[in-house]
């Protein structure tokens, strides 16, 4: 039996940090951010639909997606963000579920569905349980500003484009506090693994 653990959390909360650790423990990782890049590669239906909707200003000269331009749209305009999500999320979901099915066929013990917008896109129904990574708002802003080289206002706009942490907390089966040293985070993950794989 394959156990499917959903992994989510706010932007820069530490999902990749946790999923890298789970990968080291032998889990198969299905990562929405990676799949989101695949479905907009040059020549895909995803990129064509985006260009039809938003024009060539979101395409760079070599024909690939201008991620900065799409980011400007997504993180600053709620209505346009919904349009992008309507185009991309079904494509992302389909590919992620195909990867889960492939892992199930190989009888992999643990699959991680790493999805920033897991609850927003109702993907909890594909998971046996969901782990939410949490950090304090100030730590989140600092890590996001430093990782992506953003101003505070830019980082705040990205945080505000996602579900509020209290709702995410309420929907979680497991919560991991990632405010401290990574080793502290990994100890909590170990306890969850013990519980779900016992
Ligand atoms: C906006 C884009 C171009 C920014 O690309 P960039 O390389 O700068 O960042 P990256 O892809 O690594 O995403 C960083 C984080 O942004 C947040 N984020 C991405 N898309 C969204 C969105 N539609 N709504 C809210 N937050 C989002 C997530 O927390 C994600 O982990 C890119 O994230 C994208 O194509 N988003 C649309 C697809 C999507 O919704 N992806 C989320 C996975 S379901
Ligand atoms: N416990 C920690 N202590 C210090 N820095 C951390 C810790 N966990 C993560 N970070 C750093 O914070 C940043 C965000 O972490 P990470 O990339 O894992 O978040 P994420 O949730 O996957 O982000 P995104 O939503 O953008 O995909 C990274 O620069 C990472 O190195």
From TrEMBL:
Catalysed conversion reaction: 3'-dephospho-CoA + ATP = ADP + CoA + H(+)
Binding site for ATP: 12-17
Pathway: Cofactor biosynthesis; coenzyme A biosynthesis; CoA from (R)-pantothenate: step 5/5
UniProt-listed Enzyme Commission number(s): 2.7.1.24
Keywords: ATP-binding, Coenzyme A biosynthesis, Cytoplasm, Kinase, Nucleotide-binding, Transferase
Localisation per UniProt entry: Cytoplasm
Pfam families: CoaE
Principal EC category: transferase
Transmembrane segment boundaries: none
Source organism, top-level taxon: Bacteria
CDD domains the UniProt entry points to: DPCK (cd02022)
Molecular function as annotated in GO: kinase activity
ATP-binding as UniProt keyword: yes
NCBIfam families: dephospho-CoA kinase (TIGR00152)
Matches recorded under PANTHER family: BIFUNCTIONAL COENZYME A SYNTHASE-RELATED, DEPHOSPHO-COA KINASE-RELATED
Biological function: Catalyzes the phosphorylation of the 3'-hydroxyl group of dephosphocoenzyme A to form coenzyme A.
Sequence similarity: Belongs to the CoaE family.
Protein name: Dephospho-CoA kinase
Upper classification of the organism: Bacteria, Bacillati, Bacillota, Bacilli, Lactobacillales
């Amino acid at each position: 039996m394959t156990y499917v653990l959903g992994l989510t959390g706010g932007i820069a909360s530490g999902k990749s940090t946790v999923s890298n650790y789970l990968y080291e423990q032998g889990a198969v990782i299905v990562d929405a951010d990676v799949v989101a890049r695949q479905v907009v590669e040059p020549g895909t239906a995803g990129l064509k639909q985006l260009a039809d909707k938003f024009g060539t200003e979101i395409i760079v000269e070599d024909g690939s997606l201008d991620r900065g331009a799409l980011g400007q749209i997504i993180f600053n305009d709620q209505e346009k963000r919904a349009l992008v999500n309507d185009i991309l999320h079904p494509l992302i979901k389909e590919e992620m579920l195909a990867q889960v099915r492939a892992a199930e066929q190989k009888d992999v013990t643990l699959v991680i569905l790493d999805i920033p917008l897991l609850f927003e896109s109702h993907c909890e129904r594909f998971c046996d349980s969901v782990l939410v990574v949490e950090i304090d708002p100030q730590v989140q802003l600092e890590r996001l500003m430093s990782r992506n080289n953003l101003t505070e206002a830019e980082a705040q706009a990205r945080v505000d484009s996602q579900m509020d942490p209290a709702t995410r907390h309420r929907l979680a089966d497991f919560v991991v506090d990632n405010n401290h040293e990574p080793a502290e985070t990994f100890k909590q993950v170990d306890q969850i693994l013990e519980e779900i794989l016992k």
